[in-house]
Amino acid sequence: MARAISAATVSASRRVRMSKAKVRWSRRQEGVQTSSSQAGPSAAMSGPALAATRAARASFASAGPSKWRPSSTMPRDGWGWSSMCEAGSPQESWRMVHMTLRDGAGTAGGRARNASSSARKRNSRALSWSRGTLPSVPFTGAQARRCYSRGMSMLRRTKIVATLGPASLPPATLRAMMRAGMDVARLNTSHGTLESHREAVRLVRAVAKEEGRPVAVLLDLAGPKIRTGETEGGRALELRTGATVRVTAEPVAGTEERFTIGYERLTEDVIAGERILLDDGRIELRVVQRDGDDLVCQVTAGGMLAPRRGVHFPETALTAPALTERDREALAMAVAECVDYVAVSFVRDASDIEAARAAIAALGGDIPIVAKIERKQAVEHLDEIVAEADGVMVARGDLGVELPPEEVPVQQRRIIAAAAREMIPVITATQMLESMIEAPRPTRAEASDVANATWEFSDAVMLSGETAIGKYPVEAVAMMDRIIRQAEAVAGPAPEGAGYGEHDDHSYVVALAARRIVASDPNMRGIACFTRSGYSALLMSKVHPDAPIFGVTHAETVYRRLALARGVVPILSRAVTTTDELLRAIDEALLSGRFVDEGDEVVVVASLPVRAQGTTNFLKLHRVGDAAAYQW
Ligand SMILES: Nc1ncnc2c1ncn2[C@@H]1O[C@H](COP(=O)(O)OP(=O)(O)OP(=O)(O)O)[C@@H](O)[C@H]1O
Ligand SMILES: CC(=O)C(=O)O
């Protein structure tokens, strides 16, 4: 009995957890719909910022659905066919059942099959079909024909995030990086001005549009990065092991005896016995005591300290929130420019994500939030953070300072698993191809690092200095693309659901069913997921099917955001209002992008009725091109 109760409790909590991510995405889609009509931008905004936000929101809204009905009004009667039909009448139920069977003998199907072989030949010749929608790797005719059998080799599942900076912002370089495989452009507000980032967002959008590619923009907030202050005459200070030194939050011209650490709550938060790490952990102090506005410390690992070096407090529970005033200004820009993701730095716990979400909402926006795990505090609060965030980043740069190096790979694995449980994307970041900042080839260890992140099911891997300031930004993206493709080519089948979730959610059950169908039927060319909020494509991505996931959506924001989801090929489609139109839109999207041929078979998953916002409750084995022939 006790066992039964505890199993039920676990199941219920899992249901709550799974639906939390779903509710967030659904809420977001609702926001898209209502943004132009109801809630106005924050009353606190005025002038050009208000106008920019209104214009941005109007374009955001135009991508949204025309109608929305809360999921609580949806039929919830499980797998009953009637619940999958728009009106649920017996005739419609029958038509749906008829339609969802594979009608191999049907005349329309027969015609389509005949048409398909010539279309396939045509497409095998027209190899440019992969360009513009899938990462553009030059294929020979023979390679492409082989790949064509399932489309898998054409698709790189693990996505590439590239940080933009002086090395990558010339438009020609940016274009070349997109062609080499960049899926997400990261802008780091720790560097450059907000205006330069605004221009960069617009440039990425313009070039991506010309290239016909879904490229998401991720704005990485600087957060409360703590640094040492200026030094006397700008010189490096020689801190000798064993020496005593005073640190203070007051701005002073630093000397070997006393220098600044730019953290207002220094003497309140940091207590005797705790360590302070300077310059990425190269220098270590231990706090002896507080003395007025100073902390008296002993240097336990000495070195030369240049001005404005990074500071970490691995043993201190810092009380300063993750969002600074400058971050709030960056968020206003992000909302005005409809940035696709915002990354919050130095997150401590879930409250930092809630604060960022509230700040975005107050600006009239709704942008998915990526929590950067780079503090020991965040590692300790990982579960609550991933439950609240829309994505997560293994920010190994700062994390590797707060934790001993041997703990970083362990935490990487733990963070990826936590993201999988919550069905949110995870980015593995920092020093992935670091040596390519200076050299045209990475080290063997770096190549292995990228491959391992792929095998661990990261949704994306990230380039930082390699593309921001490196000598070989395009080559770094191309190299990452090649390493991932090789790694994916030899990876075994991915675990179903990677060990998370139970079959207690309709959307999840549909995703698993689609995965199993493509696993058992090699003729299935992929899974076409019609998605309005992006959630069902994301969910599909998290069960790792062995086939491409075509994320078909009419919302441009969703189209771009799906660029981050592992294994998803985002395709922009038209808005639909009925099931017939939905199937025709899928056919059009797949055929016009030349992802498949007429007559090819795909699994279609969607949420019906079309005009409601609900669970992914529909699955159909579909022959591409047949939708036009349905006479309902
Ligand atoms: N917009 C930019 N303008 C100028 N330099 C940049 C820009 N973005 C990045 N860089 C440079 O590229 C380097 C690597 O970029 P990255 O975003 O990883 O910075 P970081 O300071 O190491 O990371 P973080 O701030 O996230 O801890 C930076 O140290 C900086 O020198
Ligand atoms: C990306 C980042 O901020 C880090 O690795 O610390």
From TrEMBL:
Keywords, comma-separated and alphabetical: ATP-binding, Glycolysis, Kinase, Magnesium, Metal-binding, Nucleotide-binding, Pyruvate, Transferase
EC number(s) per entry: 2.7.1.40
Top-level enzyme category: transferase
Domain spans labelled Pyruvate kinase C-terminal: 518-622
Transmembrane annotation, as ranges: none
Family: Belongs to the pyruvate kinase family.
Protein name as catalogued: Pyruvate kinase
